[in-house]
Design a protein that fits this description.
alpha/beta; 7-stranded parallel β-sheet; 3 domains; 13 helices; Rossmann fold; single chain; elongated; 16 strands; 5-stranded parallel β-sheet; about 30% helix; Alpha-Beta Plaits; about 20% strand
Length: about 375
């Protein structure tokens, strides 16, 4: 019986996916698995029983990835589960920035006591006139699950779409409309597009990537959208761009003291994935990832260890080994098993950065002394007997 703990409320439709082999515990120190959404885990102390953390969402900046990796604790996220919800809000952001709907609605609210409001509206509406999306050039920085959906939807609006992603995955490429122009230099996005939206993960290399230099290259009157992370933008440079007229509107889903209430900024209170459907999808995916790992040792959608899938074990024994990504580790593992007279029926090894993961299926069960020898191999972080 595996125990899991929820640091945040997790959609029940996801929790219902757990089989009877899993039970919920209110004691986090007793859990082999933790489900989390936005709760910060950086100050937490983790028990030796913890095997995995599943983030019901894409961003993992609230989780100490390196610390958990050094303990052999797998961290999952749920890429693409909330992509449609975010995509729809990105499209809404484009419309709100292109047409002054917010200004018009606010005028109506303030004029609610005017008996001639309909007549007055005909005179005032020119103040809120905007532009259409059809025919505009849309630049998308980052063609992951969300970026691809935004690109494909924008094509249905009649927009000319340009996408930049030096790491475009095969799966994303298959799903991307053939009408989207794939550019290899992000400056092409800055220089030619009327609307620019960013959909890249927060990394050291992407933090502040849209800076004063990037703004200076943009067309006058450009609309910027940020539904990824606020710190991807140098928002002070964005505000300067608004003041100079270079930037027409800045739409962000991340309220902070820099942009809240500023002219030219449409600040949304982080609603991108706040739909019932997105929360349900994220919960279901997170639960499935956790179950697959705890029951089978398979790692899918991990952010701190390599993906590794050997299906359901049909042999007598499956051993999972977390270790440093250094030479001769496999040789040492097979030597330990060979010395014990154990026959390997299947094995896989994957690496990601400084960490690696090896799964081994055995024809007969390994004894405690053999498991102990594996644990004592220099460079091994953790050994799990899955079955």
């Amino acid at each position: 019986m595996y125990k899991y703990h929820c640091l945040n409320p997790i959609a029940q439709v996801g929790l219902d996916k757990f089989t009877p082999n899993f039970t919920k515990t209110e004691e986090v120190d007793q859990a082999e698995g933790i489900l989390v959404r936005s709760a910060s885990m950086h100050e937490m102390k983790f028990s030796d029983d913890l095997l995995c953390v599943a983030r019901a969402g894409a961003g993992v900046n609230n989780i100490p990835l390196d610390d958990l990796a050094s303990r052999g604790v797998v961290v999952f996220n749920t890429p693409g589960a909330n992509a449609n919800g975010v995509k729809e809000l990105v499209i809404a952001g484009m419309l709100l920035a292109s047409r002054d709907v917010i200004g018009g609605v606010e005028w109506v609210r303030e004029s609610k006591d005017n008996a001639d409001i309909a007549k007055a509206a005909e005179k005032e509406k020119k103040r809120f006139a905007g532009t259409e999306l059809m025919g505009k050039k849309l630049g998308i920085i980052g063609l992951g699950a969300i970026g691809v959906k935004v690109a494909n939807t924008a094509r249905h609006f009649g927009m000319e779409v340009y996408g930049y992603d030096p790491y475009l995955s095969i799966n994303a490429a298959w799903n991307l409309s053939r009408d989207v122009h794939h550019v290899t230099n992000v400056d092409d996005i800055y220089e030619y597009c009327d609307i620019i939206t960013i959909h890249v993960p927060l990394l050291d290399s992407t933090k502040g990537m849209v800076n004063a230099e990037a703004v200076a290259k943009m067309k006058r009157g450009v609309i910027l959208l940020n539904f990824a992370r606020d710190v991807l933008m140098d928002e002070n440079a964005v505000l300067e761009g608004i003041k100079s007229g270079k930037i027409r509107k800045y739409v962000t889903d991340f309220p902070n003291t820099t942009t809240a209430g500023q002219d030219g900024c449409i600040v949304i209170p982080h609603l991108g994935a706040s739909t019932e459907e997105s929360e349900d999808n994220c919960a279901k995916m997170a639960v499935q990832e956790m179950m697959n790992y705890l029951e089978n040792g398979n790692i899918i959608n991990s952010v701190n260890f390599p993906n590794c899938d050997m299906g359901v074990c049909s042999q007598a024994n499956r051993i999972a080994i977390f270790h440093k990504n250094i030479a001769n580790m496999i040789t040492k593992f097979t030597a330990c098993l060979g010395d014990a007279g154990l026959n390997i029926t299947d094995m896989t090894n994957k690496s990601k950065g400084e960490f690696a993961y090896t799964m081994i299926d055995l024809e007969t069960k390994a004894g405690d002394d053999t498991i102990e020898k594996l644990k004592n191999v220099d460079g091994v972080i953790r050994v799990r007997v899955v079955k």
